[in-house]
Specification:
The protein has eleven helices and seven strands. The protein is α/β, with parallel strands linked by helices. It folds into two domains: 141 residues, Rossmann fold (3-Layer(aba) Sandwich), CATH 3.40.50.150; 93 residues. The chain has a seven-stranded mixed beta sheet with strand order 3-2-1-4-5-7-6, with helices on both faces. The longest helix is centred in the middle third of the chain and has 14 residues. The two termini are 26 Å apart.
C-alpha cells in the first residue's frame, strides 16, 4: 500500500532494503514517523502499532484518515490543481485553529502533492506534480483508513515516545531528522546532543530497532559499542539548489 501523503525526508527509496531485514514483530513503533512510508508497505504487527510525530498537522491528518475518512475523501475528490487551492490550503494551515480537523487534513494532503520538495510553500506547475495529485486522488480509498485498525497515533517528543513504548517484543523504526536541520517542517533544529541522547537510549533498548541516518562523526563509536549491524546505501541528496551523493546507513540491533 502506498503512503497517502508525501513528506520531506521520506524513506521510500530505502524501503525495499529495510523490508529485506525486517523481522517478525508483535509491536511496531515509529517515533519520527513523517509520511510513515515503511508502515504503509509492511504487514501489520501481530498485536498493535504506534505512530508518532511532533508535527501536529501531520498527526491530525492521520487521525482524520483513521476516524473521519469519508469527509476527507469528499474534499480530496473535489480538489483542483490550481494556485487558488494551493494558497487556500496554505491559509488553512497558517490559521488552523479557525478550521475543522478535516479541512486541515485536506490542506496538508494537497500541499504535500503540489509543492516543491514537499516544503509546503512553493507551488509547482508541471506534469509530474499534476500526475502525482491525480494518482493520489485515484488511490485515496477506504483501505487507507482500514490500515489504521490496531494503530495508535501520538504527538509527543520522540525520545519520550521511545522510552514509553519500549518492550522486549517491540520493533522500533527510527528515522530522525538530518543533523543540524529542521527539514523545513518542524520548529528548531535536530542537534548533536539530541542525536547522542537517542543513541544512548538505543544502547540500553529492550526491543529491536532499525535506525536510518547519514554517515557522521558520531555514529561509528556507538555502532562499535552496541555491536550493531550496518547496511550502507548510496543515495542522492536533493535540495532546492543542488544534488550530491551521500551514504545512508541502515543500523539495527538484531
Amino acid at each position: 500500500m502506498k503512503q497517502p501523503i508525501n513528506w520531506y525526508g521520506g524513506k521510500q527509496y530505502l524501503s525495499r532494503h529495510i523490508l529485506e531485514i525486517l523481522p517478525d514483530h508483535d509491536i511496531y513503533t515509529e517515533a519520527f514517523c513523517g509520511g510513515a512510508s515503511l508502515f504503509w508497505l509492511k504487514q501489520p504487527a501481530k498485536e498493535y502499532e504506534i505512530l508518532n510525530d511532533i508535527n501536529g498537522d501531520l498527526v491530525n491528518f492521520f487521525r482524520v484518515v483513521k476516524n473521519d475518512f469519508d469527509s476527507l475523501k469528499e474534499l480530496v475528490t473535489n480538489s483542483v490543481y490550481d494556485r487558488d487551492d494551493f494558497e487556500y490550503a496554505r491559509f488553512i494551515l497558517c490559521y488552523n485553529k479557525y478550521f475543522t480537523s478535516v479541512q486541515r487534513a485536506w490542506a496538508l494532503w494537497f500541499l504535500s502533492k503540489t509543492s516543491f520538495l514537499v516544503q509546503l510553500n512553493s507551488f509547482c506547475v508541471n506534469n509530474r506534480f499534476m500526475n502525482r495529485l491525480q494518482n493520489s486522488m485515484d488511490n485515496f480509498n477506504i483501505e487507507l483508513s482500514q490500515r489504521f485498525r490496531g494503530v495508535a497515533i501520538e504527538n509527543i517528543d520522540a525520545l519520550d515516545f521511545i522510552k514509553k513504548y519500549d518492550k522486549p517484543n517491540a520493533l522500533h523504526f527510527l528515522d530522525p531528522p538530518y543533523l543540524g536541520t529542521s527539514c523545513g517542517l518542524y520548529k528548531g533544529m535536530f542537534h548533536v546532543e539530541q542525536f547522542k541522547e537517542l543513541l544512548d537510549i538505543l544502547l540500553s533498548l529492550n526491543g529491536k530497532f532499525i535506525l536510518t541516518t547519514y554517515t557522521n562523526s558520531i555514529i561509528d563509536d556507538y555502532i562499535e559499542r552496541g555491536k550493531w549491524k550496518v547496511k550502507g546505501i548510496e543515495n542522492t541528496v536533493m535540495s532546492s539548489h543542488n544534488k550530491k551523493k551521500a551514504t545512508e546507513l541502515i543500523i539495527y540491533n538484531f
